[in-house]
Amino acid sequence: MTTGLDPALDAEMLCYCTTLTFGELRAACAAGAWPPANKERTGKLCTGCQGDLQYCLRALGVRGPA
Amino acid sequence: MSSDLGALMSATFHEAGHAHLVELVHQKDRAARRQLASVRLFAYDQDGCPRLDQTLDPGQEILDVAALLDEPARRHGRLLVVFDARYDPRIFPYRPHHYGYLHRQDSAVPPLYYAVNATLGGVPDRIGAVALNNFETYLFLDRPMTGHHAVAVGNLSRFAPADAEVVSYYEGVRHVETVRLAPKAHTEVKLEPERDGHRLRRVELKALFRMASYVVGRRAGGELVLFDHLFTYFK
Q1: Residues B189 and B78 in one domain
Q2: Residues B143, B226 within the same domain
């Protein structure tokens, strides 16, 4: 089970380049399947969400890239 | 909302006392097919406190930003204005563009036209974009400066604070100023026109992730004479 991220955010957009939502990130982390197919470039294109992505991965117990 | 839609988060700044219009979709066509699927406006004060959250009509061509934000800007100072748009990638194969018009009321200074800074998204995988855009630069014209210049920078993240490094170059002299911005917070980093007798030539903005940023030029009386986005360092 993953915790630490408000479920109210689930429909909100996290990565505007790959259109990954917070809910999709939560589901992928809960399933041990981060990153999901076709979302591998999340955080790597415009880079604008990189800070939030790392924050959320830590909150969901997934270690981000070094 | 359909996951087939593209997403774009653009940002600008608004100060009270300026006529400020934003063309929500620049590439209008006669059949008016080119319109956004949705667009929402948020405004934040310098500490990142939300001051307005408004859903806009995506069919609206020109938005009067001053009409919406002059009152909160008088109360709270300069605002970070965020446009959160969704669009159909079949209609906008690259991305939509918002363009701005800015003119201080009752000023004889010419108005400024600018491209609203596309900060998040609009760069989907299909474009194959490979250049990092969290390092940006701006070259100043080779002529004497009047007034003063600054870099306006805002952090659009939801959770992550950001250290933004503003590096200004005066011939061989390099000056670094680092500002820490909480989520949705923003500031203006003033640039000295000269250091050690050398004129300001270039400024760079570096951060771990992309910021909303503009180079701002003001006359001594505060009138805006420059409001322009920086350019990505790597092309």
Answers
A1: no
A2: yes
